[in-house]
């Protein structure tokens, strides 16, 4: 049984209330940090833990904190990014629904580390129940003296606010989130300046994902050294994975990083295998924007080594044969799923969610969606695949924010790995509207890598 | 600070953007800009046509930047090396951007008032492909009258946000902005309120395409048939200094605009009275013809020098003519 750090007490009834959470050892990290540590000690501890941002990019959290500018007389802010909108990802919502106090505890410790006197939790507008849960939890914590003026008699003041967003995917991008938080249209800002220099209201700001902030709690409780013992290589600690798609037990799982994907997918402790006795065709490993992989390349890397659930192993092979950890939105596709339809669906999402500020993303996502719609409905052409790859290349890297990349990668990777299926949609257009391509060779064992003579 | 653009070194002030450094050098190495406007604070970074490659970050940190950067919003570092037209990657990306900008742009240049002074037309001419690969219906919008002087033709808009910045910074209040998002976002006013402001007409000048047009000039003439003349008047508006360009057709002033520099940016913003209401020569003090870049279609048939004499003088013929003349007059 693997260690659980975040979801340890998830099954305790009433863990969403302050009293039960406190009786299970909650808010110990606040006491420890505020009473025995200096803010720099907390940052140092998080740095030591090697915690990487759980929102998608995987940037080391401790390093992000140490970049925060600290000019005299200027307020600093911590903003929690709870605008979880990546298709396939629902871990933050789960965490906020069931253990809201873990997030609040993490917010207090992190705000203390950064010297923020006011912190915000920006929650996606659709998550109204979670907003109410958080507000109740904040009120409870305030009553118990963990928020407000002079927390635990240490002289540290913190106000915590929950801000509902409007429900736009783009507001999960940190600068767009800050714009939205300021009450403006949620357009990403042009960087530099980075939020660590000029963020919310022009003040230095750190934006962190819900899970990253929650992970600060076990790091402070047990120490950064202890945290690095879990995981593999530079992927330390545990990660919440929201597994969905054609698996037997969909849900949120806390895994130790470095778990073999095969075990994650097939063991009963986690996904429990593919539902209805079918075979695995493809996997999106970290939310809709990471490259999709066929079953064979997902289970084994190109060098025929078993793939692990870690930042490095999933990215092994780069964009040619690898994918990314992303935000942990694990979607499995069985042999009956159509990759073309799925790619179209993802593109439709990005087309709808593009903010329309910079031209490649605004026009390119719509273009890709129209071409994929045509392919899916049997009006495609053989040249469409090259067109899609070309358009995705024109978008990738040329936009203000990563939404352009996120829209381009699934299309480029789907065509790279599933070109046969796309071509079949053109050559057998009438068949393609009534039947799926099936598994084909996508789960075949990879060819043995030829040993190069030394 | 020293910065090298396409191998040409230039000394610039700290805080200058790559685009402005390139403009100090001038010529072909200046990246095109559709949304950046030097007179408007915060503009730029959106159209991505000015992308350049930074092959050396700075003297201190010589690593190249991983992605192409928007030159209008990236400030130079000492010792930075930038590639614009010398980088195939940049040329390729720019071609892609132009194609992407044009996929939803109507090709109605033959009836568009902006034709001839349209940034997108020039950009498409210089960097675009001959043929489009886009085979779907283009996005269209209804035309909207915003006030009695300006018409918005949203179909042509490339969402550069220049007019939004203009309204924010030049006029005293802004009532138009971007509604919706993605490729269905549009410039509009709140429940189609009229844009009525002393400086609202400047949005026409800053619009790089024909999305915002002057209703007093619409369909009157093609810009290249009109003759630009610099003029000024003693404008009583405190923020307007009355320096304009009059566009003549024959004796008639067809339209009045602010004076634009070679990058199509106005030198000084003008008020609506000057722009819309003073259309008689007697209102103005004429300064002289406005010089327009010889590359622009507007300067077609405008000669700055005497045309070459078509009939060359033939000394022999003149000599014979003289003899003939003397013979004829002797009698």
TrEMBL record, chain A:
<comment type="similarity">
    <text>Belongs to the complex I 51 kDa subunit family.</text>
</comment>
<keyword id="KW-1278">Translocase</keyword>
<keyword id="KW-0411">Iron-sulfur</keyword>
<feature type="domain" description="NADH-ubiquinone oxidoreductase 51kDa subunit iron-sulphur binding">
    <location>
        <begin position="340"/>
        <end position="385"/>
    </location>
</feature>
<keyword id="KW-0285">Flavoprotein</keyword>
<dbReference type="InterPro" id="IPR011537">
    <property type="entry name" value="NADH-UbQ_OxRdtase_suF"/>
</dbReference>
<dbReference type="GO" id="GO:0051539">
    <property type="term" value="F:4 iron, 4 sulfur cluster binding"/>
</dbReference>
<dbReference type="Pfam" id="PF01512">
    <property type="entry name" value="Complex1_51K"/>
</dbReference>
<protein>
    <recommendedName>
        <fullName>NADH-quinone oxidoreductase subunit F</fullName>
        <ecNumber>7.1.1.-</ecNumber>
    </recommendedName>
</protein>
<dbReference type="InterPro" id="IPR019575">
    <property type="entry name" value="Nuop51_4Fe4S-bd"/>
</dbReference>
<comment type="function">
    <text>NDH-1 shuttles electrons from NADH, via FMN and iron-sulfur (Fe-S) centers, to quinones in the respiratory chain.</text>
</comment>
<dbReference type="GO" id="GO:0051287">
    <property type="term" value="F:NAD binding"/>
</dbReference>
<dbReference type="InterPro" id="IPR011538">
    <property type="entry name" value="Nuo51_FMN-bd"/>
</dbReference>
<keyword id="KW-0004">4Fe-4S</keyword>
<keyword id="KW-0520">NAD</keyword>
<dbReference type="GO" id="GO:0046872">
    <property type="term" value="F:metal ion binding"/>
</dbReference>
<dbReference type="InterPro" id="IPR037225">
    <property type="entry name" value="Nuo51_FMN-bd_sf"/>
</dbReference>
<dbReference type="InterPro" id="IPR037207">
    <property type="entry name" value="Nuop51_4Fe4S-bd_sf"/>
</dbReference>
<keyword id="KW-0479">Metal-binding</keyword>
<dbReference type="GO" id="GO:0008137">
    <property type="term" value="F:NADH dehydrogenase (ubiquinone) activity"/>
</dbReference>
<dbReference type="Pfam" id="PF10589">
    <property type="entry name" value="NADH_4Fe-4S"/>
</dbReference>
<keyword id="KW-0874">Quinone</keyword>
TrEMBL record, chain B:
<dbReference type="Pfam" id="PF22117">
    <property type="entry name" value="Fer4_Nqo3"/>
</dbReference>
<dbReference type="GO" id="GO:0051537">
    <property type="term" value="F:2 iron, 2 sulfur cluster binding"/>
</dbReference>
<dbReference type="GO" id="GO:0016020">
    <property type="term" value="C:membrane"/>
</dbReference>
<dbReference type="GO" id="GO:0016491">
    <property type="term" value="F:oxidoreductase activity"/>
</dbReference>
<feature type="domain" description="2Fe-2S ferredoxin-type">
    <location>
        <begin position="1"/>
        <end position="88"/>
    </location>
</feature>
<dbReference type="InterPro" id="IPR054351">
    <property type="entry name" value="NADH_UbQ_OxRdtase_ferredoxin"/>
</dbReference>
<keyword id="KW-0408">Iron</keyword>
<dbReference type="Pfam" id="PF10588">
    <property type="entry name" value="NADH-G_4Fe-4S_3"/>
</dbReference>
<keyword id="KW-1278">Translocase</keyword>
<keyword id="KW-0411">Iron-sulfur</keyword>
<comment type="similarity">
    <text>Belongs to the complex I 75 kDa subunit family.</text>
</comment>
<keyword id="KW-0520">NAD</keyword>
<keyword id="KW-0001">2Fe-2S</keyword>
<protein>
    <submittedName>
        <fullName>NADH-quinone oxidoreductase subunit G</fullName>
    </submittedName>
</protein>
<dbReference type="GO" id="GO:0051539">
    <property type="term" value="F:4 iron, 4 sulfur cluster binding"/>
</dbReference>
<keyword id="KW-0472">Membrane</keyword>
<feature type="domain" description="4Fe-4S His(Cys)3-ligated-type">
    <location>
        <begin position="89"/>
        <end position="128"/>
    </location>
</feature>
<dbReference type="InterPro" id="IPR001041">
    <property type="entry name" value="2Fe-2S_ferredoxin-type"/>
</dbReference>
<dbReference type="InterPro" id="IPR019574">
    <property type="entry name" value="NADH_UbQ_OxRdtase_Gsu_4Fe4S-bd"/>
</dbReference>
<dbReference type="Pfam" id="PF13510">
    <property type="entry name" value="Fer2_4"/>
</dbReference>
<keyword id="KW-0479">Metal-binding</keyword>
<dbReference type="InterPro" id="IPR050123">
    <property type="entry name" value="Prok_molybdopt-oxidoreductase"/>
</dbReference>
């Amino acid at each position: 049984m693997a260690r659980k750090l975040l979801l340890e007490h998830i099954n305790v009834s009433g863990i969403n209330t302050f009293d039960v959470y406190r009786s299970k050892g909650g808010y110990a990290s606040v006491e420890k940090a505020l009473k025995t540590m200096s803010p720099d000690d907390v940052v140092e501890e998080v740095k030591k833990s090697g915690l990487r941002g759980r929102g998608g990019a995987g940037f080391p959290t401790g390093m992000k904190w140490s970049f925060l500018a600290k000019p005299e007389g200027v307020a600093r802010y911590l903003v929690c990014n709870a605008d979880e909108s990546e298709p396939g990802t629902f871990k933050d919502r789960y965490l906020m629904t069931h253990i809201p106090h873990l997030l609040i505890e993490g917010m207090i410790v992190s705000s203390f580390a950064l010297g923020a006197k006011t912190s915000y939790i920006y929650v996606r507008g659709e998550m109204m129940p979670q907003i109410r849960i958080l507000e109740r939890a904040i009120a409870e914590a305030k009553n118990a003296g963990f928020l407000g003026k002079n927390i635990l008699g240490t002289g540290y003041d913190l106000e915590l606010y929950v801000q509902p967003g409007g429900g736009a995917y783009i507001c999960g991008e940190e600068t767009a989130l800050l714009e939205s938080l300021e009450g403006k249209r949620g357009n990403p800002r042009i960087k530099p300046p980075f939020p660590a220099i000029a963020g919310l209201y022009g003040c230095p700001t750190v934006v962190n994902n819900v899970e990253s902030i929650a992970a600060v709690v076990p790091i402070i409780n047990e120490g950064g050294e202890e945290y690095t013992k879990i995981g593999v290589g530079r992927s330390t600690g545990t990660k919440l994975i929201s597994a969905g798609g054609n698996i037997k037990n969909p849900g949120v799982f806390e895994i130790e990083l470095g778990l073999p994907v095969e075990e994650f997918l097939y063991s009963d402790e986690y996904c429990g295998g593919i539902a209805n006795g079918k075979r695995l065709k493809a996997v999106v490993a970290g939310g809709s924007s990471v490259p999709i992989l066929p079953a064979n390349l997902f289970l084994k890397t190109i060098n025929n080594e078993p793939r692990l659930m870690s930042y490095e192993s999933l990215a092994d092979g780069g964009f040619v044969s690898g994918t990314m950890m992303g935000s942990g939105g694990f979607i499995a596709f069985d042999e009956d799923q159509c990759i073309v339809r799925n790619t179209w669906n993802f593109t439709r999402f990005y087309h709808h969610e593009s903010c329309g500020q910079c031209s490649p993303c605004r026009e390119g996502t719509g273009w890709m969606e129209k071409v994929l719609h045509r392919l899916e409905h049997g009006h495609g052409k053989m040249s469409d695949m090259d067109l899609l790859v070309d358009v995705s290349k024109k978008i990738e890297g040329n936009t203000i924010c990563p939404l352009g990349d996120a829209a381009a990668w699934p299309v480029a990777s789907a065509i790279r790995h599933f070109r046969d299926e796309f071509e079949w949609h053109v050559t057998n257009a009438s068949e393609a509207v009534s039947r799926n391509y099936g598994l084909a060779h996508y789960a075949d064992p990879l060819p043995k890598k030829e040993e190069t003579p030394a | 600070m020293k910065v090298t653009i396409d191998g040409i070194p230039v000394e610039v002030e700290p805080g200058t953007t790559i685009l402005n450094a390139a403009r100090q050098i001038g010529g072909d190495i200046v990246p095109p800009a559709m949304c950046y406007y030097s007179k408007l604070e915060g503009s730029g970074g959106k159209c991505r046509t000015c992308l350049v490659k930074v092959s050396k970050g700075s003297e201190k940190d010589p690593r190249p930047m991983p992605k192409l950067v928007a030159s209008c919003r990236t400030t130079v570092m000492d010792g930075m090396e930038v590639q614009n037209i010398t980088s195939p990657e940049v040329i390729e990306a720019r071609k892609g951007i132009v194609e992407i900008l044009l996929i939803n742009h109507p090709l109605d240049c033959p009836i568009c008032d902006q034709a001839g002074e349209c940034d997108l037309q020039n950009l498409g001419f210089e960097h675009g492909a001959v043929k489009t690969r886009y085979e779907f219906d283009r996005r269209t919008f209804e035309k909207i009258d915003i006030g009695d002087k300006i018409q918005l033709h949203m179909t042509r808009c490339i969402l550069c946000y220049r007019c939004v910045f203009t309204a924010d910074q030049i006029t005293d209040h802004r009532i138009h902005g971007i509604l919706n998002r993605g490729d269905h976002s549009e410039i509009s006013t709140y429940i189609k309120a009229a844009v009525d402001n002393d400086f609202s007409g400047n949005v026409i000048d800053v619009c790089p395409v024909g999305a915002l047009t002057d209703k007093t000039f619409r369909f009157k003439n093609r810009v290249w048939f009109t003759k630009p003349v610099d003029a000024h008047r003693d404008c009583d508006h405190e923020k307007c200094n009355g320096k304009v360009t009059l566009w003549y057709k024959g004796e008639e002033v067809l339209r009045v605009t602010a004076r634009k520099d070679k990058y199509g940016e106005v030198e000084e913003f003008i008020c609506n009275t000057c722009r819309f209401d003073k259309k008689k020569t007697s209102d103005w003090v004429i300064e002289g013809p406005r010089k327009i870049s010889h590359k622009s279609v507007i300067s077609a048939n405008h000669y700055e020098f005497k045309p070459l004499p078509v009939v060359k003088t033939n000394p022999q013929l003149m000599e014979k003519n003289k003899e003939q003349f003397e013979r004829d007059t002797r009698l």
